[in-house]
Amino acid sequence: MKPTIILEGLNPAQREAVELAEGPLLILAGPGSGKTRVIAHRIAYLVAEVGVHPYRIVAVTFTNKAAREMRDRVVALLGESAHSLMLGTFHSVCARILRADGEKIGIGRGFAIYDEADQQVLMRQAMADLEVDPRRFQPRAVLATISRAKSELASPAAYMQGVREYFYEVVARCYERYQALLEENNALDFDDLIMRTVVLFRESDEVLRRYQERFLHVLIDEFQDTNVAQYVLARQLAGGHGNICVVGDPDQSIYAWRSADLRNILNFERDYPNARVVYLSQSYRSTRNILDSAHAVISVNRQRKEKELWTEKGAGLPIAVYEAYDEAEEADFVAAEVQTLVTSGDRRHGDIAVMYRTNAQSRALEETLLREAIPYRLVGGTRFYERREVKDIIAYLRLVHNPYDRVSLGRVINVPARGIGQKTLAELDGWAASLEVPLYLAMQRVAEAVSREAPAGDEAAPHPLAPRSAKAVASFVALLEGLREEAGRLSLSSLVTSALERTAYRQYLLGQFDDGEERWENVQELLTVASEYDGLAPEAALLSFLEDVALVTDIDEYDERADAVTLITLHQAKGLEFSVVFIVGLEEGLLPHIRSYDDPAQMEEERRLCYVGMTRAKERLYMVRAFRRHLMGMSAANPASRFLKDLPSELVTRREAVQEEVEAVLRGPSRLRKEPAVPSEAAFAAGERVRHPRFGEGIVVSCTVTGSDQEVVVAFQGEAGIKKLLLSFAPLERIHI
DNA sequence: CGCCGTACGGTTTTT
DNA sequence: CCGTACGGCG
User: How far is CA A435 from CA A130, A179, A462, A614, in A?
Assistant: First the structure.
């Protein structure tokens, strides 16, 4: 491989970033500056020019999708030898390390990876054990706090130390119990994957040294989104040689809520004083108008360092701002523009993306696109592996692999219904606890007793169950044991098929659900995925299938080439680019999201999110808002997003649908007449500051006329939070600034 | 034990 | 608006 090919077409800064083979390197890069390209070329350069075997390189990306893209690029440059590269998310890299060496810190080889739903089940269990009221302390909130602790590498004991407030004291106790339950189930949650790997490296010099010696080069993409634990891990890996290359853009940091810590970028230069810093400031993606508008939005942030970003592209088209009446009209506008772009221009559907803040917003768009017969592809949403029927089948497979997985057992012990209800389960649980054995072992004892056919009127029954329940338990144990026996010799897809047949799962779906047919199709799709593992030895197939299911959440790879409009959240859009981008829902309360109002840091993150969305566009950017929007069944009028106001007016073309037209619409015969809430009658406008004698000061989120009264939603500072108040009862006072 | 109805509560972003 | 939790009935 000649360097001319690897370095071809790179600008001087990119070239420098590729060629600096030794030592720590920090690449700070704006959107569209070719970050991914630089990493891919750097890997190729290391292999082809410096002579590093790909096996000795570890490259970390933020998503699995990015990893696939990276691999494709490297393979294009180097050929098939690139496959021995260790490439993936931090989570998948750690999973592989822990599979190989986790036993040294007591993690069983076949550990399960628990997703958010599993974690909640476990947390509820922990709270029940500790007699903590889940209404007062919401499992979600407790788990989020624990996640933050883990991402800073705080063990339960360490966390307990630093706790002052009552809430955190409760969290600390839950953390301890939750962690114990995870261990009992031989399971790790996402944060454990990172934290336990760090612990493994801390506790075993031998293991750490082995990986340090194997990985001569460490590369990390999207470095602005790493958390403390991930950064510590990266430093451990690069500890010997210091060949660590990180690439990031502080302006695109949008995962602080997931404990991503921008200080990692600052600390990098402190931790590696000899680090070289390369700036990639030329954008190859967006037109100047798009770049300038995005810059106008991001430059309002105070916690930010100004940086240069330029393009050789022309000014291009102005930003199109459109104000729709409601989300239906917003979708109509998007659909109409898409039609125009495709029929009259040279755009394909696949060149176009619609981006939004919350997944719920995709609904209105989908309805319209479906009606207008515009092909679309929804990214994310209810993810495939989160569907009930898919999770059921996976729970069976997990049990086959590890019958002591209490969460999976609880999920399917009575699915399809087989006569093991809550009462039976509670008795079993109590009995297992008194014997100090796992639930499944207790069930096996019940099954044994049943098969021995204890005579009627048996004195001292070996278990507390009624004969009927005991029989049901025995047949479940027989079902699972049958599957476990098959697991050793059948291919994965045959195993799944057997599980489906033994449980009569299809009949269950069709009989139980109105959309049973559709659900069965999802099961069929899962079967297709499973069959891709048929080439592996049975045990290995099951293990890697379960791991991929837990870590690879996107299954939509194959229809990526389909020519369809992409519907995607702003978060998921990171790293992607499209010729045409619509950002919809640019309203106060949505983008920026209402949950970010009381914290300036969070507000800055919303701004970065908007920036990320805008800079996805290559040529044409639409920014759309709706005057009214239905949220959770209610309709509310929201003012335009502050981000719209920050756009330089000379770069924008505006189409007003709202002001003049709204009243005409209300007067005329329209679907909108059903809701005669007239905003001018509202006592408060969104965004106004108000005071309440009990809740203190706050900001009006919305004010809607309901019958003879008005409903005012106020986001109060401090503990009161967001409150819905009736105007006639609430003594609200306007604060004038 | 399972099914069906109703009441209620929670609502961002994701590996 | 959605999904879930709970209570009463077969």
Answer: 20, 22, 12, 60
Span A418-440, mean pLDDT? 85
Question: What is the 8-class DSSP label of residue A23?
Answer: S
Tell me the Ramachandran region of residue A585: left when phi exceeds 0, alpha when psi lies from -120 to 50, beta otherwise.
left
Which segment of A114-118, A236-240, A420-424, A664-668 scores lowest on mean pLDDT? A664-668
Local confidence band at A99 (pLDDT 50, 70, 90 cut-offs) = very high
Q: What is the pTM of this model?
A: 0.83
Query: Nearest Cα to A218, choosing from A365, A21, A368?
Result: A21
Torsion, Cα of A232, A238, A244, A250 (10° steps): 0
Q: Which of left, alpha, beta for A51 (phi over 0: left; psi -120 to 50: alpha)?
A: left
The answer to whether the beta carbons of residues A374 and A358 sit under 8 Å apart is no
Protein contacts on strand B: list nucleotides below 7 Å from a Cβ: 1-3, 10-15
Least confident of A354-368, A420-434, A445-459: A445-459
Which residue out of A101, A115, A189, A222 is catalytically annotated?
A222
Chain centroid offset of residue A478 CA: 38
CB-contacts to strand C (7 A): A 630, 632-633
Question: How much is the average pLDDT of A495-517?
Answer: 86
Q: What is the DSSP string of A387-452?
A: SHHHHHHHHHHHHHH-TT-HHHHHHHTTSS--S--HHHHHHHHHHHHHHTS-HHHHHHHHHHHHHT
Nucleotide nearest to A609 (CA to C1'): B13
The rounded percent of chain A whose pLDDT value lies above 70 is 88
- Between CA A682 and C1' B14 the distance (Å) reads 38
Between the alpha carbon of residue A553 and those of residues A108, A292, A380, A402, A645, the distances in Å are 24, 35, 9, 22, 37
- Of A391, A608, A616, A642, the catalytic one is A616
Distance CA A20, CA A24 (A): 9
Angle between helices A492-502 and A505-512 (to 10 degrees): 60
Tokens of A302: 């105070």
**Long-range contacts, stretch A704-708, CB < 8 angstroms, 24+ apart:** A704/A634, A704/A635, A704/A636, A704/A637, A704/A677, A705/A677, A705/A678, A705/A681, A706/A677
A512 CA to B4 C1' distance (Å): 12
- Phi/psi of residue A536, nearest 5 degrees: -85, 165
Q: How far is the CA of A419 from the C1' of B2 (A)?
A: 9
pLDDT reported for residue A382: 67
**DSSP tag of A32:** T
Looking at residues A161-189, what average pLDDT do you find? 89
Where in A137-190 does DSSP place strands (E)?
Answer: 187-189
Lowest mean pLDDT among A327-341, A503-517, A543-557: A543-557
Q: Within 13 Å and on the Cβ side, how many CA atoms surround A185?
A: 27
Q: In this predicted structure, what is the pLDDT of residue A231?
A: 96
